[in-house]
Amino acid sequence: MATASPASSSTLYSERLSPSVGWWITVLFLSAMTSLLALPLTQVGAVVVPLVVGAAVIAWMRSLSTPIVVTDQTFVAGRAHIDRTFIAGATGHDAEQSFAQRGHLLDARAHLVLRPWVKTVVRVEIDDPADPTPYWLVSTRRPDALVSALSSSASPSAS
């Protein structure tokens, strides 16, 4: 799908859902613990194995960072994007409501862009007759700002 040129599209909201500091510390600590697995075999391995595992885990964690972008024409959540004309509405949820949205209230047809280190979500209603997806459920640290950007009247219009 072709994307709009920067001259014809302005960014209304942008966020990157990167793992929090606590996740990084935990992952690096667990990677360092792999030295204990290699130590009985070789002292060199006790240094090399955690470095290799740590580099692999850092690359993996970075790949889990997800961009959330709203322009005047599109909504991008991770690898998925949709034209804003197909967005019927958006609702932000606090941590408790988000837990329910991710759990017993979840529709199996929904498109999910969830990250475990982000506790709040926005539910974006989709109105596209060609798309069986009823809504997107997207993690965000700023649900009110995302809802405001999605609800703005800056969606594309014929000029």
Structure commentary:
With 159 residues, the chain is an alpha+beta fold. It is 35% helix and 26% strand. It contains 4 helices and 8 strands; from the N terminus they run βααββββαβββα. It has helices at residues 21-38, 43-63, 95-102, 143-151; strands at 11-17, 66-71, 74-77, 80-83, 87-93, 111-113, 121-126, 135-139. A 4-stranded antiparallel sheet has the order 1-2-3-4, with helices on one face. β2 (66-71) and β3 form a beta hairpin. α1 packs antiparallel against α2. The longest helix is centred in the middle third of the chain and has 21 residues, at 43-63. It is elongated, with a radius of gyration of 20 Å. The model is unreliable at 1-7 and 154-159 (pLDDT under 50).
Question: Topology of this structure?
Answer:
Elements: E1 11-17, H1 21-38, H2 43-63, E2 66-71, E3 74-77, E4 80-83, E5 87-93, H3 95-102, E6 111-113, E7 121-126, E8 135-139, H4 143-151
Helix pairs in contact: 1-2
Put the structure in a nutshell.
The protein is α+β, with helices and mostly antiparallel strands and 159 residues long. It has helices spanning 21-38, 43-63, 95-102, 143-151, and strands at 11-17, 66-71, 74-77, 80-83, 87-93, 111-113, 121-126, 135-139.
